[in-house]
Design goal:
The complex is a heterodimer.
Chain A: H1 2-56, H2 60-72, E1 76-82, H3 89-101, E2 108-114, H4 118-131, E3 135-138, H5 147-155, E4 159-164, E5 176-179, H6 182-195, E6 201-207, H7 213-228, E7 232-239, H8 244-256, E8 263-266, H9 269-281, E9 293-297, H10 301-308, E10 314-316, H11 323-332, E11 339-341, E12 346-348, H12 354-360
Parallel strand pairs in A: 1-2, 1-3, 3-4, 4-5, 5-11, 6-7, 6-8, 8-9, 9-10
Antiparallel strand pairs in A: 10-12
Helix pairs in contact in A: 1-2, 6-7, 8-9, 10-12
Chain B: H1 2-20, H2 24-40, E1 48-51, E2 57-60, H3 62-69, H4 71-87, H5 94-110, H6 123-146, H7 152-170, H8 197-215, H9 218-227, H10 229-234, H11 239-265, H12 277-287, H13 299-318, H14 326-341, H15 343-362
Antiparallel strand pairs in B: 1-2
Helix pairs in contact in B: 2-13, 3-13, 4-8, 4-9, 4-11, 4-12, 4-13, 5-6, 5-7, 5-11, 6-7, 6-11, 9-11, 12-13, 13-14
The chains are: A alpha/beta, B mainly alpha.
Amino acid sequence: MKRKMAVLLTGAMVMATLAGCGGGEAAPAAETAAPAAEEEASAEEEAPAAEEEAPAAEEEAPAEEAEAPAASGELITLGIINNDPNESGYRTANDADLKATFTEENGYSASFAYSMKNDEQIAAAQKFIQDGVDYLLLSAADTSGWDSVLTDAQDAGVQVILFDRTIDADESLYLASIVSDMDKEGETAVNWLESQGLETYNIIHLQGVMGSAAQEGRSGALQAKADAEANWNIVEQQTAEWNAENAQQIVQSVISSGKEFNVIYAENDDMAKGAVAALDAANISHGVGKDVIVMGFDCNKWALEELLAGNWNYDGQCNPFQASYIDDVIKNGAPAEKTIIMDEKGFDATTITQEDVDNYGI
Amino acid sequence: MANSENAKTSSASFLKNLVRNQCFIPVAALLLLAVFNLIADPSFFRITLGYNSAGNPVLSGFIIDIINNGSELAILAIGMTLVTAASGGQDISVGAAIAIAGSVVLRVLCGGNARPETLQAPIIVAFLVACVVAMLFGAFNGVLVAYFKIQPMIATLILYTAGRSIAAWINNNELPVISDPKFAYFGGFIPGIPIPTPCFIAIACMIVIGIVLKVTNLRLYTQAVGINQSSSKLNGLNPEMIKVLAFVILGLCVAVAGLIKVSRVSSINYSVIAKDIEMDAILAVALGGNALSGGKFNMAASIIGAFVIQCLTTTLYKFGVSSTALPAYKAVVVILLVVVSAPTVREYLNKISQKMKLSKEVA
């Protein structure tokens, strides 16, 4: 009897937790979708019509659409599928940016769905298509497996815009793809480093999780430069897996082994922070005009503040603010080139201002 | 003649006892790594006294790095050994729980403001709150395991999955940064003391658990529950309570490790803090030759096991093993160590040595 009870209770517990997990993700989509339902009827009638016109008169149709909501108070409905905002500071900023842009004041009614799993994202996409949203915005967890659902979207007259991540699907299936160019981020950083005009570059290279797009892009440029130039040496090249502590350990071990270095090239801010902690413990000066140049990526607010204080030298941006680009595509029509590469800055500690910290810090 | 034979057998039995001792394998592994480093590059053992950027004396060197960076793992190994012994399973939510504990510490210190000018609460208060929270989560795991009879790995899977999101939620998804230098003492150096603070914290934890195991019946009760739950119940123990207690103690270890982790960088990153540390902690227990199915345990062996893992990591960093190959090297060494220290293999080896002795006597 007791055992039966235990089994039942266990079952109930598991059910409860499962329901808890599932509910958390499904709820926001269901809730926010509700207000959109009213507009659906009228929006649906118009959307396909607008779409038919689109290929013929690309520039006119969207312009009408942009005016329409302002005039009649009708909202453009969006289904936004994103990764979990807890994933990283980048994602948090990205999600906050989308939420701040696609408000009712700006003429949008947005529903959000979050998942880091492809199948859950596809299920969310199918739901959005059934709800008859005007646009489906997608940051895919995985690059493959999207063909059939995107074809469904096209048949249903739902326009698809990709942001942050590309997918392996035919270009005709989506309106635009707004992404970062990681290779360019690496190049910008390496060019900046070159402009410092050091006699020799002895670099500690702290890599992100191996195989990630950010790691490959940011490593590639540096590796190519180090291979090409005689006075560029990579003293230590190791993955710290985006982790501050691992970075600290790696730099500690380089210091303990007595190797000479004058540049720390960390592929994100956390790792740069860990490296700086190790430098501080060994009384090695770093920052503007000091012994070691510290470079990071991602432009976290606290990292830009370090730049402002002159403790670090460089921070490369990985732009999470795609919302304005998406807004532009929706209101002004599809771009000639489907892939839009965002502007990404590199901040130099000698020229950064408080304004930059406030505007670009995530 | 007889005397020398006696001495021979006693030295042989001493050697046998040494080999039989559970600490033998991890200590031997540690020595092996040390000898390897000595041959490859003796500078591995160099310790230098220098000054950090604040002008305080600090010791540096690979040995210091190992003791310093291995502290958290050693502390976690204490709790993990108890959980393993009592429940016959492992807690895989340790890393996520550290994220929660660390997040709580920062939340209390910052008081909801991501970039506070001054600390909003004394550090000790923040630590105690984190202890309570971590012990509650430990109790949650323990109750699932003890009363609902869920496999420990499945029960702790819940927190493993949800923990880092909970940690992010505690701080409203912000990344607090603490600028007060006092907070960095716990993961760095106290001015004037050249030895890293985590070492002292780890030693304190070892002393406390040593005293507890010596003075109380914790060891006996835990082993009794782990070996045979129903017979321990018949003997008047409360096995459920003991299991929950083991998880709560692990929770306390998690809080201590969490404090050190967030203090090291004065900040937190929810998705990567203490990533995969649960696997290292379980590995430390296994390296210590403890049966992962529960029962008897040797605390010292687990702690030495933790330092073996850190020594291996530091050695690989030192030799600049390429990033992509690092896990593979680690895996090879770990497989060897775990296989050799597994109780079944040791039994088998014992049998062989006995057979050899027998055949020698016959001859």
